[in-house]
Design goal:
Layout: H1 5-25, H2 33-40, H3 44-55, H4 59-77, H5 82-88, H6 94-105, H7 109-122, E1 139-144, E2 147-153, H8 161-172, E3 179-185, E4 195-201, E5 213-218, E6 221-229, H9 235-246, E7 252-254, E8 259-263, E9 276-285
Antiparallel strand pairs: 1-6, 2-4, 2-5, 3-4, 3-8, 6-9, 7-9, 8-9
Helix pairs in contact: 1-2, 5-6, 7-9
C-alpha cells in the first residue's frame, strides 16, 4: 500500500500538538528535548528538525513565547510588580525580562500594563453630558451582512494557531483575498465545544477537492467592534476586557454567533506595534 501524504502530515501535526500542549500546560517546566521527543514518538535525533518544520519555530522559541504570553496575562491582572512577573516567567533580571518582552510584544512591560489598564477604562460606555463627545469612540456598533469564507479548522493548542493561518495562506496560493479572519465559536474556556477557524474571504474559486478547507457562512447581525493596535498577543486580554468591562454597562448582551478577529494588516509587512486588528463581539439589544 502506498503511503498517504495527507494522513502522514496530519499525524505529524497531532504529535507536535501534543508537545505544544505539554509546554502550554506547564510553561515553567524544564522541557528537555529528549522528553518532548518521547512524548511525540519521534527520534530525539530528528525531533527538533521535525518540530521546527511543523510549528514554524524552534522548541526554545515556543517555550519563550508561551512564557511571555503568561507574562501578558499576569501583567493584565495587575496584582504583581513587573519584577515579580519577570521572575515568575523565568527571567533573573528586570532588564532581561523587559528586553525579551519588548521583542515579543513591541513594547515594554510597563507600557503594556498601562495600555491594558487604559483599554479597560476606555472600553467603559461613554454617556453624553452636554460636552463634546470623544471621537472616535473605542467601541462601535456595526451591522454585518452574512459573509461566506474559506475556513480551516484549527486542531491543537492555541499556541499553534499561527501555523493554521500559515497553512490557510498556503492553500490560498496567489488567489485574491479580501479579508483574513479568525473565527471563535463558543467559549475558549469550555472544551471540547470550542472551535477556532482561520478564514479567508475570497472572490476567486478555490479547488473543490481540498477536504481540509471548508466553506462557512458567518451569520449577519450586530457586532461591537474594538480596533486593537499592537501585536496579536494582546488579543485575548482585549477581548476579556470587552466582555468583562464594556459589555455589562453597554445596553447590549452577547449573541449566539462567532466572535471574530479581522486582521487589517500583516506581521509580514509591518512591525508588531503597527498591527491593527478589529475585534468583533456579536451582540443584541439587552432585554
Amino acid at each position: 500500500m502506498s503511503p498517504n501524504p495527507r494522513r502522514a502530515e496530519q499525524s505529524y501535526r497531532e504529535r507536535v500538538s501534543r508537545v505544544v500542549a505539554a509546554i502550554v500546560a506547564d510553561p515553567m517546566a524544564e522541557h528537555r528535548l529528549e522528553d518532548l521527543a518521547r512524548l511525540a514518538h519521534f527520534s530525539p535525533f530528528h525531533f527538533h528538525r521535525i518540530y521546527h518544520s511543523i510549528a514554524g519555530e524552534t522548541v526554545a522559541a515556543t517555550v519563550r513565547r508561551v512564557r511571555l504570553a503568561l507574562a501578558t496575562r499576569l501583567l493584565t491582572r495587575g496584582d504583581q510588580s513587573i519584577t515579580q512577573v519577570g521572575l515568575a516567567v523565568g527571567y533573573e533580571s528586570p532588564q532581561a525580562f523587559t528586553r525579551a518582552f519588548g521583542q515579543f510584544t513591541g513594547q515594554s512591560p510597563r507600557a503594556f500594563q498601562q495600555q491594558m489598564r487604559e483599554a479597560v477604562l476606555d472600553a467603559a460606555p461613554v454617556l453624553p453630558d452636554g460636552k463634546d463627545m470623544p471621537a472616535p469612540p473605542p467601541v462601535q456598533i456595526i451591522e454585518r451582512p452574512v459573509q461566506t469564507v474559506h475556513a480551516l479548522h484549527h486542531r491543537g493548542p492555541f499556541s499553534t494557531i499561527p501555523h493554521t493561518h500559515r497553512r490557510l495562506r498556503a492553500h490560498a496560493g496567489g488567489r485574491a483575498v479580501s479579508d483574513w479572519l479568525g473565527i471563535s465559536c463558543g467559549d475558549p474556556e469550555v472544551r471540547p465545544e470550542f472551535r477556532y477557524y482561520a478564514a479567508a474571504a475570497s472572490p476567486e474559486h478555490w479547488p473543490a477537492d481540498n477536504a481540509e478547507v471548508e466553506m462557512l457562512d458567518i451569520p449577519a447581525g450586530l457586532y461591537a467592534v474594538h480596533r486593537l493596535a499592537g501585536p496579536y498577543t494582546r488579543i485575548n486580554a482585549a477581548v476579556h476586557a470587552l466582555y468583562a468591562q464594556w459589555l455589562p454597562g453597554s445596553g447590549y448582551e452577547p449573541d449566539d454567533r462567532p466572535t471574530l478577529e479581522h486582521y487589517l494588516n500583516s506581521p509580514r509587512q509591518v512591525a508588531p506595534a503597527a498591527l491593527h486588528t478589529d475585534l468583533l463581539i456579536p451582540v443584541r439589544a439587552a432585554c
